[in-house]
Write a structure and sequence with these properties.
By secondary structure, the protein is of the alpha/beta class. The chain is about 40% helix and about 10% strand. The chain has a single domain, classed as 3-Layer(aba) Sandwich (Rossmann fold), CATH 3.40.50.1460. Strands 2-1-3-6-7-8 form a 6-stranded mixed β-sheet, sandwiched between helices. It has a two-stranded antiparallel ribbon with strand order 4-5. The longest helix is centred in the N-terminal third of the chain and has 19 residues.
């Protein structure tokens, strides 16, 4: 059913694009977009109740490849991202981080996804490998889209690279979420499927990753815990299943949870659970200060995962801290034209 709907949506989007793009103006050659080099990768939070339509549909950048070219390039871009991963360190657990920034209408999600990738590479050494999937007008030619299909392609590729008995998959998802526990996946006007809690659990279940860390940073993200939790799995969410989280929107550079867990937590502890406990206290303080309904971030620790993460941490000496900085739109936009 999903495949049929995707085809119909793509057909409808193509028809709309012909009307929407006057004269179907030519775009830069596709090769320029997919061969571009990736860009080098404060902030008081705002509410995560923002709309997916904060930016107009005609905000597609003029110097980017066309929507059709972007869709066509995705399999190649995922293969390129997989090929660019640092080599696996033998005879010890490795961690493979995939960041997924779902909503392309707000830079805060891109900022967080790219910062997480830089942080893990700098702090956690050669046994940490990072791959970024993101939706943002500024990075259409530099990172694969955060889409259902690309997530499956990335996991397929990682399953061939990882040692299943030792290595840990980590998925960090950041986007808007709703009360039905669906994540917003949007890069207007591309026809992208939305991603629900059961969908994400199903995608992960199709691959043999005995050791997993899944972080869902969105409103109502506690609803992702029931289908995702289990042996060998650590699940962290930014909010309870019936609560909003905060700090996203066009007036924020990073979310409450992203700042508390990534910037303030993991910059001082390589232990994900310790960093989460610190982040939960910090977020509660911010929410009390701002008069907000507590989001109450949630955690589920499956059997064995704490011990496996401890084995991974023994394989490196934590590197220097990484101050947070937002991504630079100008750099990413121009990169799409680089031959």
């Amino acid at each position: 059913m999903r495949s049929i709907l995707t085809v119909l949506l793509a057909f409808a989007a193509g028809a709309l694009l012909m009307l929407w793009l006057p004269g179907h103006a030519p775009r830069p050659p596709l090769a320029n977009a997919i061969n571009a080099s990736a860009p080098a990768a404060s902030s008081e939070p705002a509410s995560d109740a923002g709309s997916a339509n904060d930016k107009p549909a005609d905000d597609w950048p003029n110097n980017a490849p066309s929507p059709e070219q972007v869709l066509y390039a995705q399999p190649r871009m995922v293969r390129r991202a997989l090929a660019a991963l640092t080599p696996r360190v033998a005879d010890r657990p490795n961690l493979y981080l995939v960041t997924f920034a779902g909503d392309g209408s707000e830079d805060v999600f891109r900022n967080e996804a790219e910062y997480a990738a830089r942080l893990f590479a700098q702090r956690f050494g050669a046994t940490a490998h990072t791959l970024v999937l993101e939706n943002n007008p500024a990075s259409l030619g530099t990172h694969p889209l955060a889409s259902w299909s690309n997530l499956e392609l990335a996991l397929d590729g990682l399953a061939k690279l990882m040692h299943p008995e030792q290595d840990i998959l980590m998925l960090y998802v950041t986007s808007h979420g709703d009360e039905a526990h669906d994540l917003l996946v949007d890069m207007d006007p591309l026809p992208l499927d939305q991603l629900g809690a059961a969908d994400l659990a199903g995608i992960l279940a199709e691959h043999r990753f005995p050791w997993k860390v899944v972080v869902v940073n969105a409103c109502y993200s506690g609803g992702f815990i029931p289908p995702l939790q289990g042996p060998g799995t650590l699940v962290l969410t930014a909010a309870r299943s019936d609560r909003s989280s905060f700090g996203c929107g066009n007036d924020s550079d990073i979310t409450y949870f992203g700042r508390a867990w990534l910037v303030d937590g993991l910059n001082h502890s390589a232990d994900f659970v310790t960093a989460f406990q610190q982040a939960r206290r910090e977020i509660a303080g911010w929410e009390k200060r701002d008069g907000l309904t507590p989001s109450q971030p949630q955690i589920a620790i499956g059997s064995g995962i704490s011990e496996q993460l401890a084995r991974w941490r023994k394989g490196f000496q934590a590197g220097p801290t990484l101050p947070f900085s937002a991504a630079t739109p100008a750099t990413s936009s121009s990169a799409a034209q680089t031959p």
